[in-house]
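Job type: complex structure
Entries:
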Amino acid sequence: MIVIVAALKGGVGKTTTTVYLSAVSGARRATTLVDADPQASAADWLEHAADEQLERVTVVEAPTERLLVKALAKIAPDDIAIIDTPPGQERVLSTAFRHADVVVVPTRVGGVETPRVEAVLDLVPAKVPVGLVFSSARTFTNDYQDARAVWAEAGVPVWGAVPERVTIAAGPGGWLSADGLDSYRSVWRRILRAGRG
Ligand SMILES: Nc1ncnc2c1ncn2[C@@H]1O[C@H](COP(=O)(O)OP(=O)(O)O)[C@@H](O)[C@H]1O
Ligand SMILES: [Mg+2]
């Protein structure tokens, strides 16, 4: 199963989402994290992480479209691959989506984010399930409730909200946050369900 984590914008939680979902998935199934961002922040994170959950995840760097297609072709049907993508690369995303079983779009709360998310949704082929994850969310705010309402009305599923936490913001410099893992576990269940159709 190929899961693409995609957004056109940087700083919305793509890499964090990819790493945490890989940790969650890797606890049960053979999991490959494919890093399609030439910045390689996910690959760097895993290289330096001491977390046991991440030790079982295989990392493949695929900084070009061609290498990405190659990497995806090597994923065994029963294995899981989670793909981190670069910002602002419509072409790379379109290519990735052609191979996707599920697409996850991390976003932040706020009116300016909506059109950016819509632009990504427009690139996803109709038959591929897609859902949103609010990263760094302040779930107790009106803005958050408003954002949920917007997407509910648009019929776009929200697979979860990951609360804003300093332990998650620590990124590669810290341990995976127990809280973060809990939130992403629940997102992962939704992804698996969507992927099974
Ligand atoms: N749940 C969260 N709580 C706090 N900070 C977060 C959370 N999720 C992501 N961040 C922070 O937001 C910033 C952008 O996240 P990142 O995953 O690097 O986004 P992208 O890959 O889309 O550029 C990073 O500094 C990251 O640590
Ligand atoms: Mg990133």
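Summary: The longest helix spans residues 178-196. The radius of gyration is 15 Å.
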